[in-house]
Amino acid sequence: MAKVIWITGASSGFGMAVALQLLKQRKHVVCVSARRAHLLEMLVRKGAHAYPLDITETADIGKVQEAIEADHGPIDAVLVNAGFGVYGPIEEVPEEAVRRQFEVNVFGAVETVRSVLPSMRREKRGRIVLTSSSAAHVSSAGMGYYAATKHSIKAIGTALRQEVGELGIDVVMVEPGVVKTAFGQVALEENYMAPKVPDYQNQMDDLKTFMLRAFERAPEVDHTRDIMIKALIEEHVKPVYRTTRGSLALGFMSRLFPARMYDAIVKQAIGRLH
Ligand SMILES: NC(=O)c1ccc[n+]([C@@H]2O[C@H](COP(=O)([O-])OP(=O)(O)OC[C@H]3O[C@@H](n4cnc5c(N)ncnc54)[C@H](OP(=O)(O)O)[C@@H]3O)[C@@H](O)[C@H]2O)c1
């Protein structure tokens, strides 16, 4: 039977790549959400069903879930993927930008999850795939708020896995490192908070140079996309997938090194590129 799959953040990057690949399989009902409805049109032409949604309008999330289920039946799997990064020093990122970072990456994700749980519990089956990040394990200067949102996703996803595992619902966290999507441009241009306090200037310059190079050299979406699809549709899945070498290494480093040594290694790695 065709699975009904809902993907948030489908107008770009991982979400769009997963939707396109699933549509090629012609086996599933693919429902796609994002703010920029016009970017979903290409997916609709290929057979997707579009449900435009600004994930910060949390009251709308349940309406989209209800509309999908009214149109296609119970949602079998959801890719909770909409997200972005704000880069800037802890002291300087304006409160409004911090709130927005959490509204999209955490509250939006949580409400998406909560919207699908009643019907998944009723059906005694379901798959919740959370797009997490290597930043769920590590944090560094200039990326503290983004990392905080992904640490939150890890904590919430871990609790959820324990709460709903025995109800027939699988929770899977996918943790990419840096991958070529629009994420870099959104974080390093649109949401980059250039420091006004001179004390932070060098660190932020270092971070920007480091991240620009990292995105230039980053892998394409294919491998992470394939892992996300596996997490959405295969019968047996793992609770966590780290999809890039960077995310494997960072997770390992954060467990291996004491805090000050970890700080020194990260600072040296970021500064070395100058
Ligand atoms: N690329 C990486 O290096 C990387 C690494 C680790 C984790 N991630 C995570 O991967 C996920 C997807 O990002 P991506 O790399 O594919 O970046 P992307 O190409 O920029 O895509 C981000 C998606 O999120 C959606 N989104 C952002 N704000 C939204 C809002 N308020 N309401 C609804 N949708 C919203 C965007 O759609 P609209 O703007 O049209 O709304 C877009 O479809 C994010 O959770 C990100 O944190 C990315």
UniProtKB/TrEMBL annotation:
The keyword Oxidoreductase applies. The keyword Oxidoreductase applies. Keywords: Oxidoreductase. InterPro entries: KR_dom, NAD(P)-bd_dom_sf, Sc_DH/Rdtase_CS, SDR_fam, SDR_oxidoreductase. It holds the Pfam family adh_short. Residues 3-182 form the Ketoreductase domain. GO terms for molecular function: oxidoreductase activity. Belongs to the short-chain dehydrogenases/reductases (SDR) family. This is SDR family NAD(P)-dependent oxidoreductase.
